[in-house]
Amino acid sequence: MSNQVPLHEGLFTWPAAKPQLLGSRCNQCAEATFPAQPDCRSCGSRQTTIVELGDRGILWTWTIQTFMPKQPYRSDETPETFRPYGVGYVEMPGGVRVEARLQANSPDQLQIGMPMQLDIIPFRTDKNGNQKMTFSFSAAQGV
Amino acid sequence: MNVAIIGIGLHRFGRSPNMSGMQQGASAVRAALADAGLSWADMQFAYGGSQDGGNADALVNELGLTGLQFTNIWNGCATGGSSLHAAYSSIKSGEYDVGVVVGFDKHPRGAFNPRPKEWGLDEWYGETGLMLTTQFFALKTQRYMHDHGITEDALIRVSEKAFTNGSLTPTAWRQQALSYEEIANSAMVSDPLRKYMFCSPAEGGAALIICNADKAHQYCSNPLFLKAAAVRTRHYGSFEVFAPSQAMEVADAPTVTASKAAFEQAGIGPEDVDVMQLQDTDSGTEIMHMAENGFCEHGEQEKLLLEGATGIHGRLPINTDGGCLANGEPVGASGLRQVYEVCVQLRGEGGARQVPNEPKVGYTHVYGAPGISGVNIITK
Ligand SMILES: [Zn+2]
Prior knowledge:
The structure holds two protein chains of two kinds. Helices cover about 0% and strands about 45% of the residues of chain A. Chain A contains no helices and nine strands. Chain A starts with a strand and ends with a strand. Chain B has 13 helices and twelve strands. The interface of A and B includes residues 60, 74, 96, 101 and 123 of A.
């Protein structure tokens, strides 16, 4: 079985029973940002702390990416196998709206204000056969 | 020191297969010089910018090695606004009397492909397909429609107007008017924006000759005056392109702050403007920019568009040459094309697309990644 590794370190807790998005929060003004960064975009402070932003949120806006993007997009797809994907900003309980791929890919599955849940999913396979994992959101199951 | 525009030049937007971007820039400069009745050797300074056409200062190889101060400007889609602002400041300060501003470009076909590192982002953001300007404009438009009760009808009417105006503009790239139905039935690209609601990367050049207003009449019988030039970047909390996250509290867009600054400089308000060019990367963007620039309330656009208020004969004539939608967007040149068109209108040389009743005040607005806006106010 192939190994699963995060596409990029520090974006989410994983592997974990309940993976969480990771961001940073400013020690001075308490604003949160994703991904985590050492400086605060709001007040310019250099004191920030890495925090969990949550694993559920509310869809703030969305669109559907209908055509296969050019570089820097890098997936295993070909123009023939490309499958449209949703993109949205999800309002996280950690106090920031995070841009993410959405698994829904048709307009009738998406609505501003709907509850969403975080999923860590395989995105592409690297040259060593490892599955690169990324974060994505889907309609929340249960409550 | 007041600032005058005494010459305008355009190298037609669209495709010029046998010309480099640089040659299209040089062509625009020659046209602007001819319009002003001046020669390249008269130019004391130049500001220029291009995304894919090469370094603007290499234009001296085409135009002449005269030793002038030539500064390259790069500010994304707002490059033209930033170049013009730099020229405005050079005249205002009294350092120079006459110079040129030029923008040109020649992009490969299809959507732009930005490199995450150049925008301070990590590779994963681009790799996973989140780094597309088309997506951002769709996401912003989607939320805006939800918040302000704008429907698809308004999006369609913006495009309909753009291509109608393009059909009246001999220099436009797209000169064929499109029907409401053709636009409404065109392919969905990024919900809620369809194929005929987006502009495409293109080619072209635009140039302006800028002069100390006290000396303008030496060169020119019909100078126009650049009353304001303002460029602003984003504040914390404004909803901008290429942003992996956004703050919860939404702040005013840089367009709002640039527009306010420009009106303040000019000492006039939105109600005084007779003709305007607003960045229309897509039809949703034009709608949002109508309100962000102060020309209407948020949500009022639906009714204004239904009434045709933004057409050439309406009370808010917007993008009279068809804007980016009908001209395409050669990034370096696009903002200066807007100024060119406003000058044409103020001179009364718009032909079939001329705004009636002798417009006296014009307004231009560019917006670019990652959240920068440039506004100019031009008067007779
Ligand atoms: Zn802070």
